[in-house]
Each structure stands twice: as C-alpha cells, then as structure tokens.
Design a protein that fits this description.
This protein is α/β, with parallel strands linked by helices. The protein folds into two domains: 170 residues, NAD(P)-binding Rossmann-like Domain (Rossmann fold), CATH 3.40.50; 92 residues, N-(1-d-carboxylethyl)-l-norvaline Dehydrogenase, domain 2, CATH 1.10.1040. The two termini are 20 Å apart. The chain contains eleven helices and eight strands. Helix content is 44%, strand content 12%.
C-alpha cells in the first residue's frame, strides 16, 4: 500500500505496541516506536515482521522508526500518539506530561490502557481535551475492534478524528462515551467470565465445557451477530421470558471467584507459568498460539469481506 503521509508514534514496543505499529504500517502509515534499551527492545523487529506477515504486508524498514526516548521522535511530523506502556498510573502520567510538552498542540494523545481511565491519566494536564483512550485487544494487529474512550474532558471532535484514523487502516472504532471501569468490551467480557468461573466453582462444568459452550454454541454466532442483534434475530419476547427465569440465578458477586483467586495465589497464571485452568508445556503453548492466531486471521477475513460488500 502506498504511504498516506500520516505518522503515528507508539510509546512502548511490547506485545501490544508492536502489534499497533504493525497495523498502522500495513495501513500505509509511518510509525515511530519508542522503547528503552531493554529485553523487549531486542525482539521488536522480529515481532513486527511476524505481525506484518500475518497481515499480508511487507515490513518496510523505511516506514518504521525506532528511538529510545521521547526526545528522539520527530514531533512536527506526528499526527497521532498511542501510548502502550506498562499498566502503572505513575508511568503513564509521566509519559503524558512529557507528550503534552512535545507533541504538536493538535495531535491526539491516546492510551491503550485496558484498566486505567484516560481521565485519571490526564489529571492535572492542560490539554485533556485531546486525550482519549484507544484500547486495542490482543493480538492488536489481528483483532479489528479498538475502543475509542472519552473522558468528561475529551473533545468529541478529537475522538471522531481518532476513530477516523483507525477506520482508515481497516479497524472498527468502538465508541465509548463515558470513561467508566472496563470501558465497554471488558465489562461485557467480565460479566461472562464471572458466571463462567462461578459455574466451574460450583462443579457444574469444567473449564473445557465452558469454553466449548462459548466457542461451539452461542459464541459461534457472535462473528455473524453481536448479542443485541442476535436477540432481534431470535425474538425479544423469547429473550425477555428466558431472562426472567435466568437472571435471578446468575452470579452477581462483587469480588473475583475463589476458583480464580486460588489459582493466582498458587502462582498458576496460565501460559506464562505453565499452568492455569489448563496445563501448558512450551510445545503446547507454541501450537496453541499458532492455532489461535490462525483462527483469528480467518475470522478477520470473514468480517473484512462483509464490511467491504
């Protein structure tokens, strides 16, 4: 694809940051990746190449710039900033304070944080009106949806502009007009997970049963229709009647399930430790990640074809 002339600065070259940059470069932008000289920085080039290959694009070295500090970015050229630093409020606030000084006054400043509200990150800064959340989902280069989250002080026109940039590179901008915990997708996702963990804890189903129920039953339909549209297909009268029976019995706990917290307390964190709800060997992790990303890429092609019709 021909270069559009747009430039994005991605602050943080970890798993999310590299995927975000790859998506913009595949969409015709130039990207600057800011990351200090650490273990993460040594793998950025490889991860960029892999992500670009999955997107069917060539990793053009002339379209990707690297620097170790914010001072190295050619700020007069930058049209958009997306911060993807570690999930610590102090780190993000320090970054945004410096971004406010360095970026052009009209450049949108975005955070990829999945937990920290953009309103808190921007507290005390003079240009909070240009700060919005741009919450990607992992893997960032394959999942089409990106939440564009406004705080009370975000200018809706800036959010419109960020959404337009994302749409221009093939993403689906999901507008979230209130900066509340979990934004939109994670609130829905956590509601489902709370019930799933409760069912496991009560001995009603195994983790595998839960996953199969989602992947091969109701969740199978979600690539064709989200939960609201799907109920229009099925009939709202049917849904309302079922809800009256089911809702009173659903888990409404205000704390994480014991089956989850016990695993965390035991150090069983999933793939990163070799055990979670499932057991993981290095070989199984590699195979699962390959299967997972292949499935996501195939699903992405279905949705992309539908959007282009």
């Amino acid at each position: 694809m021909q270069q559009s002339g747009n430039v994005v600065a991605v602050i943080g070259g970890g798993t999310m940051g590299a995927g975000i940059a790859a998506g913009f470069v595949a969409g015709g932008w130039k990207a600057w990746i800011v990351n200090p000289p650490d273990a993460v920085s040594t793998t950025i080039d490889t991860r960029l190449r892999d992500a670009m290959a999955q997107l069917g694009a060539t990793c053009d070295a002339t379209a990707i710039g690297r620097c170790e500090t914010l001072a190295g970015v050619p700020w007069p050229d930058v049209d958009l900033v997306i911060e993807a630093a570690p999930e610590r409020l102090d780190i993000k606030q320090a970054i945004f304070a410096e971004l406010e000084r360095r970026a052009k006054p009209d450049t949108p400043l975005c955070s990829n944080s999945s937990a920290l509200p953009i309103g808190r990150i921007g507290e005390g800064l003079a240009t909070q009106s240009r700060m919005v959340g741009a919450h990607y989902f992992m893997p960032a280069h394959l999942v089409p949806g990106v939440e564009v989250v406004q705080s009370e002080k975000s200018d809706p026109a800036v959010a419109d502009r960020v959404a337009a940039y994302l749409e221009s590179i093939g993403k689906v901008a999901i507008r979230v007009r209130r900066d509340l915990p979990g934004f939109l997708a994670n609130r829905i996702q956590h509601a489902l997970a709370r019930e799933a963990y409760s069912l496991i804890e009560r001995g009603i189903a195994t983790a595998e049963d839960i996953d199969n129920a989602v992947r091969y039953a109701f969740g199978f339909r979600y690539i064709a229709a989200g939960p609201v549209l799907q109920k229009d297909h099925a009939g709202l009268d049917v849904h309302a009647a079922a809800a009256a029976t089911v809702y009173p019995d659903l888990c409404n706990a205000a704390v994480p399930s014991k089956v989850l917290t016990d695993l965390v307390a035991a150090g069983h964190l999933g793939m990163k430790t070799g055990r979670g709800f499932y057991a993981w060997t290095p070989e199984r992790i590699a195979a699962e990640k390959a299967r997972y990303e292949t499935a996501l890429a195939a699903a992405g092609r279905i949705l992309d074809a539908e959007r282009k019709r």
